[in-house]
Amino acid sequence: MLICAKAEQCVARKYDQESIVCVCNATYCDLIEPTTVDQLAGNVARHYISTKEVDIANATYFQVNKNVTYQQILGFGGAMTDSAAIHINSLSEEAQQLLLSAYFSPEGLEYSFVRVPMGGSDFSTHYYAYDDVVNDSTLRYFNLTEEDYLLK
Fold first, then answer.
1. What's the pTM?
2. How far apart are CA 99 and CA 90, in angstroms?
3. Are 10 and 57 in a shared domain?
4. Alpha helices in the chain (DSSP H)
């Protein structure tokens, strides 16, 4: 059985004809209701959907068996790219706190890991690396960039 649920009330901002985003600002970010494994009896999972309409008929279903494990889950998270950090830094301090709480707090997604790309990535404002000198095996020309000091 799958419990399909929406997060708290979304403060929607409309784009185009059908597209919306939930606004997170200095005074509000929508959060999800925390759930522990003990609260889910039998083969029940809670699946949160980010969509305009909750369509149970077309929902993705999971079958959970807590007695069969294939690997240990150490945590969940996402990437902190230069682009993500630039956008977070552009928010007010209050909005930053609410956004980070939405990702890392027990009332949010409960992220426990962040992957930080080494050097530039496809979400950087320009291409860069830590050592662009060919055959520099001693790393004599290794250097950090402004992004490393400000964003990582």
1. 0.68
2. 12
3. yes
4. 82-89, 93-104, 146-150
According to the model, what pLDDT value does residue 118 have?
86
On whether the CB atoms of residues 147 and 80 are closer than 8 A, the answer is: no
Q: What tokens appear for 148 in the block?
A: 């490393």
pLDDT digits (tens, 9 = 90+) for 24-45: 888 888 777 666 667 666 666 6
**Sign, CA torsion 85/97/12/32:** positive
Q: Which residues of the chain fall below pLDDT 70?
A: 1-8, 33-37, 39-62, 64
Question: What is the C-alpha to C-alpha distance for residues 90 and 141, in angstroms, rounded to an integer?
Answer: 32
59, 4 Cβ separation under 8 angstroms? yes
Q: Given the structure tokens 């992957």, which residue do they identify?
A: 115
Looking at the fold, whether 132 and 86 belong to one and the same domain comes out as: yes
Q: Is 80 found in the same domain as 46?
A: no
The count of structural domains within the chain is: 2
